[in-house]
Structures are given as C-alpha cells and as structure tokens.
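Readers outside the structure-tokenisation community will struggle with the description of the input data as it stands. For illustration, here is how one protein appears when written out as sequence plus structure tokens:
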Amino acid sequence: MLVLGNGGHAVGRSGHSAAADEVSTPPRQFPRGIAGVRAMVDVGVERGVPVLACLDGSGVDENALADDAAHVRAWQELAVAQNLVRATGDAPGLGLEVGSRIPLRTYSVWGFALLASPTLREAAAVGLRYLELTFTMVGIHLQEDGDEVRLVLDDGFVPQPVRHFFVEREMANIRTILDTILGRPFTPLRLDLRFPRPEGPAPYEAFADAPIAFGAPRNAIVTLAAVLEQSLPQADRHTMQVCERECGLLLARRAHTEFAARVRELLMQWPDGIPDMGAAAAALHVSTRTLHRRLAVEGTSYRRLVDGARHARAVEMLATLGLGVDQIARRLGYADAAAFIRAFRRWTGATPGAYRTSAPTRPH
C-alpha cells in the first residue's frame, strides 16, 4: 500500500511499515484566507444566526468578511465553527453546505498549481505537499491499496464538538475542487464516514451519486486507482512548476513569522494543565525574554494566548470528558472553580453548566 502524507511524499508501501505519525500529523496552524469564515457566516445567516453571533469570541471583524485579502488564524476559524455548530444544533449536512461554497479560486497559487497539473496524481501530490496553504482543519493523506485509492481525512486532531462539521466541510470542498480541476463532475466509488447514520434524512446531495458507508473505520473519499492517471484539461507543466515554487516560498515565509501559532498549538496540546511562560519557552527552545519579544512582534502576548487556549480547552472538556467544574478549573490552572466560572462567563456569556446543557453532543 502506497501512502502520500500531508507533505505529499510517499511514506509507506506494502510490506514496509510506515510510522503512523508520518501520515496523521495535523496541518500546522498557519493563517488562512477569510473565505472559510465567510462561507460559515453566510450559511449561518441563512439559517437565522446573526453575523455577530457567528463571529462571537473569534476576534474576526465583521468588515473583514468583505475583504478578500484578509487573513484569519486557525483558532479564529475554529471559534466561528464552534459558534455555528452550537447555534444550529450541529445539523447533519451543515459542513457539506459550507464546504461546497469555497471555490478553488479562493486558494490562489495553490489552486492554480492543482489546475495546471498534468494528471490527477500529480495534482494530489502537489496539493498534499502544500496542504498548509488551505483552510483544512483535518489531516489528509492518500492511500493506494490495490485497485482502490482512498483520500483519508484524519479528524483525531479536531475538537470533538466540531469534528463532524469539519469532516463534512472538507469532503464537500474536496469534491468541489475535483469537479473544477477535472472539468466535469467527479463521481467517487463510495464515501466512508466514521460517524453513524443520521436518524432523519440528511442533505448529502453533493455525494448523492455515490454510496455512503456510515460507521466506517475511517473518513475517506474512495475511488478507483486508475482515476489518478487521468489527464487534466488545463494541464501546463511549466505553470504548475512556477506555482509550486511560489507555494514553497510562501510556506517558508510563513514558517519564519508564525511563532504565535506554535505557542498556541503547544498550549492546546500540553498534557498537564497550562504551562507557565518559562516551561513553554523551554519546550520551544527559546528564552522567556525571546518568547515575550516574538509574541509582541506578532501583536499578541503569552497571557492572551493562554486565555484563548483555556477557552478552547474548557469547551472541549465540557463537551467530551464529562468532568465537573472543579476538575476543569484545576486542569486549566485556576485557583478555584469560581475564577474559572467568571472566565467562562466572560468567554461565552453563560456558566459552564448552562453551556454544557445546551451544547449538542457527538460520538467520538
């Protein structure tokens, strides 16, 4: 079995072991264009959710929605998704509706690289190699297994309350991208989804021409391996190579400037509570003074990032772990439950108990 990971390189074949973390690493939390947030807000408004309610706590200015040059952080997009899912009751098909509204052109040079690729295989390799230039919140890798090929969406790094939503969103967006670069509708062999079949009719029109296997071991778009060898109608190898070089340069520039994203990711994944600045600096191999200075250059502070991480982790703990308020307060480093409750009310306008009662639940 051949596997292409998020870097777009082969990392395993039949008879050879490929380390799981080589194909399951989440996309790094670089800034992304506003189009993903705009699509969520548009769908929210159509479903009766006010714009400001969609953007609540995200730090995204309403005026930025009309600015195609605006960028947001991954955590901001995640906050908008949490607002949308909570306000709509996590309706089945919500993510599909959002994902179908993000056209290939919003991806700029990454999209042009795919469009100009000679074959679908080469488009997949380029797309996965520079996946960090997209809006995806899930890990994505390609598996070839005999006559079948699976584009697998790993949702293990996505907070549980919005896991279902983002799997749907990315699948619908992938379908939209494939339709565009193929120049015709793409028909998969089947769609594998980890979550259970919805009780009522679900709006899966985007994949109505393919069978859907609910409760599958993985989330995947499955098709015949031969499809990868199809020539693309707008193929231009020179253009693809120029665009691919631009993708590489863009990633390199971002890697040198997005220090706050690394700190935020560290805070979200810290195994025991929230580290103090000294511990965080040591984990990032910089001094405390350097950590403070680099965050200031990017317009933020360690205290602000800790506050955001506590908010996100508190919401996830309330939705998935069944912990009491005292336990969550201790895990997040608060002196007592009262301090945590005050902070939670500031973030959400509700107490932890009220939030837990109204939040929709999803299976892990």
In short: Residues 258-358 form a domain with the Arc Repressor Mutant, subunit A fold (CATH 1.10.10.60). The chain has two domains: 2-30+90-249, 258-358. Confidence is low (pLDDT under 50) at residues 8-28, 360-364. DSSP finds 16 helices and eight strands in the chain.
